[in-house]
Structures are given as C-alpha cells and as structure tokens.
Design brief:
Blueprint: H1 6-14, H2 19-42, H3 45-62, H4 72-91, H5 97-123
Helix pairs in contact: 1-2, 2-3, 2-4, 3-4
C-alpha cells in the first residue's frame, strides 16, 4: 500500500486488527489540508486545532457508516466544515474587522516570505536543476 489508496485504507479500517493503523494514516494524509480549510473559517490557530480534533473524533465514530458514495476527502471536508460552523455558532465569535485584517495580512506576509525563500533557493541551483 505505497500510495495509501482510500479504498485500501477503508478496508484496513474495517479490520479490527488494523483499524488504528489505518486511522493514523488517514489523519496524516488529510490533517494538513483540513486544518487550512478550517483555519480560513475560524481564523485562530488554536481554534482550528480544536475543530480538527473534534473532526477526527467524529470521523472515528462515523467511519463504519461511511458509504463510499463520495470520496473520503469530500466526506472529511464536509465534517470539518460542519464542525467549524458549529464552533462559530457555539462561541458566537464575531472578530473585530481590524483583528481579521491583521491576521490576514500576517498570513500573506508569511506566504510572501516563503515564496521569496523558495525563489532564492531556486537561484542557488544549477541551471539544469531549475524548473
């Protein structure tokens, strides 16, 4: 199972002997993508971590009922979205626009920093290695 195909992972999850291993692979495979999706909704890193944790608890509890009518990631994405929206309703988070703008600007500055780092490192590569 080199590529960790979703069908294979679901099959492993359904086997009691490999359930925990399969779930750990699912978490590693999708956690980052889901984190960034949730982070855009709840803004805060700590809140996004909490929502992701709740998401994977719901996934663990509901995985047996997953019908495979959609892709695994689609199902996980929907659960994460619902958890994030529930979180916002529960805490009625209304962030001041200035705080939202500062967070957005900080995120953009970090992205720009990473892009500059990549560009600089690329320049250090021999011409034949550049893409």
């Amino acid at each position: 199972m080199a590529k960790n195909n979703d069908k294979e992972l679901l099959s492993l999850f359904r086997d009691e002997n490999t359930r925990h291993h399969a779930f750990n692979i699912i978490i590693r495979k999708y956690q980052e993508r889901l984190y960034w999706h949730v982070r855009r909704i709840v803004i805060s890193h700590d809140d996004a971590d909490d929502v992701i944790q709740n998401t994977f608890i719901r996934v663990w509890n509901g995985m047996e009922e997953f019908r495979e009518a959609s892709q695994l990631y689609t199902w996980l994405y929907r659960i994460a979205t619902n958890e994030a929206l529930s979180f916002l309703k529960q805490y009625k988070q209304v962030l001041p626009i200035r705080k939202v703008m500062r967070l957005y600007q900080a995120e953009n500055q970090y992205k720009n920093f990473l892009l500059r780092q990549i560009r600089d490192q690329r320049q250090n590569l021999p011409q034949r290695r550049r893409f």
